[in-house]
Design goal:
Order of helices and strands: HHHHHHHH
Radius of gyration: 17 Å
Oligomer: single chain
Distance between the termini: 48 Å
Helix content: over 70%
């Protein structure tokens, strides 16, 4: 691997970075940290970051990612409500694992959303990365939904999403955002480990 190329690309990304992208990156990273700690602040930081990325993705013709960030906004509002409204008698919503039915539903949503999004991008937009963009969008769609429900497996979908997004954003010239997703991949792995431990704690209580 040409590490000098990556260093030069990162430096160029910093030179071209707008204050708006930098702010979105900062809030995005903060949101992931709060998510790892099962902290409710994951949602207000995430809401602001995703709204900024709706605009950025529109400018760079990443239409599916623009749509998923709009979806993030809606699911963040929903997740904020769910996390702060546990069942009667409970102090908080527990972190749990999906059952077989949940996995079937999650994979079904992933495949259906990928097919639908890729069709729309190919036939109705000028996207030059329709299938790539659609995959990250579909995977993130499922990840956000599972996070709102406090399912451990949400991190598996975030790991996939973040890892694939790294070369996508690099290709589109959003170098700093590409490095952000590389960092997100590492954080998602850490988040999966942290939530596994949390789920085990809930199971024992």
């Amino acid at each position: 691997m040409d590490f000098q190329f990556l260093i030069d690309g990162f430096a160029e990304g910093l030179r071209q970075m707008s204050w708006l992208e930098a702010f979105a990156v900062f809030l995005g990273i903060a949101s992931v940290f709060y998510s790892m700690r099962v902290n409710i602040l994951v949602y207000p930081t995430g809401i602001i970051s995703t709204l900024i990325y709706v605009w950025i993705c529109f400018q760079y013709k990443l239409y599916a990612d623009m749509g998923i960030n709009a979806y993030y906004f809606g699911m963040s509002v929903y997740g904020w409500y769910v996390w702060t409204h546990p069942k009667a008698g409970a102090t908080e919503v527990p972190v749990t694992w999906m059952k077989t039915k949940g996995w079937i539903l999650a994979i079904g949503i992933l495949l259906l959303s990928y097919l639908l999004i890729s069709y729309v991008l190919v036939h109705f937009t000028d996207s030059d990365v329709p299938y790539w963009d659609s995959f990250t969008t579909a995977s993130a769609f499922v990840g956000m939904w599972l996070m709102a429900k406090k399912k451990v497996e949400n991190w598996i979908f975030w790991i996939i999403t973040d890892f694939v997004a790294v070369p996508l954003y690099f290709y589109k010239g959003l170098i700093l955002t590409s490095f952000q997703y590389l960092f997100f991949t590492v954080l998602a792995i850490m988040g999966l480990i942290a939530w596994i431990k949390t789920a085990r704690t809930y199971a024992k209580s």
